[in-house]
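FW: tagging you since you asked about this chain on Friday. Here's the raw sequence from the shared folder, copied in full. Didn't touch anything.
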Amino acid sequence: MAQISDAIRKTPELKGKWKSTIQPVQQIVAERFQRLTLKDIPFKKPEPVQDAEIDQIQRHLQKLFPDLDLSKLQKLHTPKSSLYQS
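HL: got it, structure written out here
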């Protein structure tokens, strides 16, 4: 996934092709989720996160933690941000 993300950042026109390629896989996963139940209660199908939502979260994070590297939000990298830790 990291390689795909890097390629899309370098070549933005790949994004549309990637979305059209991954759409059938998302559909299969959604159909599988719709068949699942827990104590006779059906699972709700998760919706893919939209780019606008990701941008909004990143803007909020940037305001709250200006020293946080938004390209590295894994637990391994967050201790490097003193504001995030406090």
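FW: Residues 7 and 14 are 8 Å apart (CA to CA).
HL: agreed, and The radius of gyration is 17 Å.
FW: great, closing this out.
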